[in-house]
Amino acid sequence: RPRVLSGIQPTAGSFHLGNYLGAVRQWVALQETHDAFYMVVDLHAITVPQDPKELRANTRLAAAQLLAAGLDPDRCTLFVQSHVPEHAQLAWVMNCLTGFGEAGRMTQFKDKSAKQGADRATVGLFTYPVLQVADILLYQANEVPVGEDQRQHIELTRDLAERFNGRFGEAFTVPSAYILKETAKIFDLQDPSIKMSKSASTPKGLINLLDEPKATAKKVKSAVTDTDTVIRFDPVDKPGVSNLLSIYSVLTGAGVAELEEKYAGKGYGALKTDLAEVMVEFVTPFRERTQQYLDDPETLDSILAKGAEKARAVAAETLARTYDMVGFLPAK
Length: 332
Ligand code: TYM
Fold this sequence. Notes:
InterPro entries: aa-tRNA-synth_I_CS (IPR001412), aa-tRNA-synth_Ic (IPR002305), Rossmann-like_a/b/a_fold (IPR014729), Trp-tRNA-ligase (IPR002306), Trp-tRNA-ligase_bac-type (IPR024109), Trp-tRNA_synthetase (IPR050203)
Distance between the termini: 34 Å
Mean pLDDT: 97
Largest sheet: 3 strands, parallel
Bound molecules: ligand 1
Family: Belongs to the class-I aminoacyl-tRNA synthetase family.
Main location: cytoplasm
Order of helices and strands: EHEHHEHHHHEHEHHHHH
Low-confidence stretches: none
Helix content: 40-55%
Keywords: Aminoacyl-tRNA synthetase, ATP-binding, Cytoplasm, Ligase, Nucleotide-binding, Protein biosynthesis
Binding site for ATP: 9-11, 18-19, 147-149, 186, 195-199
Number of strands: 5
Radius of gyration: 21 Å
Number of helices: 13
Strand order of the largest sheet: 1-2-3
Shape: globular
Structural class: mainly alpha
Strand content: 5-15%
């Protein structure tokens, strides 16, 4: 079986619809066909300040949501990044192969550090993408299911894998990004020119999966569209309506053309009312399942412990080989 690996940050509160449609949904599907490794990336999370208590709670919350979304610990390996020390260890080696300018060209770093100011942005934030490279290469992943915003980090992974292989010998599988066109980028409901994200200026455009279903329905109904009335998929001229159609289509399995036909001659109100209902039907059981996992932290922690053990077996092997190829003296 080909292998996939991906990760998600333990953000405060809840995953948003972009995380789910852009990534997690694909993770669930790929566990059926691939040898799948998925993790909660707490090492990445501390590249920006975190309250220790909240970080711990958010890490459990992230794992609970992944299980609620449909990851099955018997079908995939689900673990927490800091439980597998090889991530930090390989990251160091990769840091020493990465150009300073090369790291400085990462657009997510440029955006985040510009927002924080040069003195507050940490070296950890600078080297964030290199840790991600290590995450992927440790498992010899063939494919990495992510949203469009991660593409540049996967390109860096490919470059560094090839660089290492060229300099020291074949050590790493060169991975590909697995990005589905329809859900590569879910847009903010209030400003369909920007991606849905926690850092958007207004929470009204952000669908948090664990919010009250009623609040979610309200956000869908007040989504920004355009002054036209025609329901047509056209991301350039009708980004708001197209975003709603994409979301509707993937959540229900109905094709976009089918939806265009269904809503021909009807107004935006009808589309939004129906999509709000679809969304409520999706988030209501999701919230319940997440709560069930949170109510039983012992079971949750033991799932994560087993996952870490399975992950470590693979990661340790890759790291040992890498250390040897680099020329480190064996400890034995
Ligand atoms: P993170 O936690 O920011 O996001 C998790 C996943 O959600 C996707 N995503 C979106 N997809 C579509 N539309 C959106 N609006 C949207 N917003 C977020 C992201 O593309 C991502 O796939 N650096 C990664 C975590 C990471 C990782 C890894 C990923 C660490 N190590 C190794 C893959 C492999 C991140 O911050 O994701």
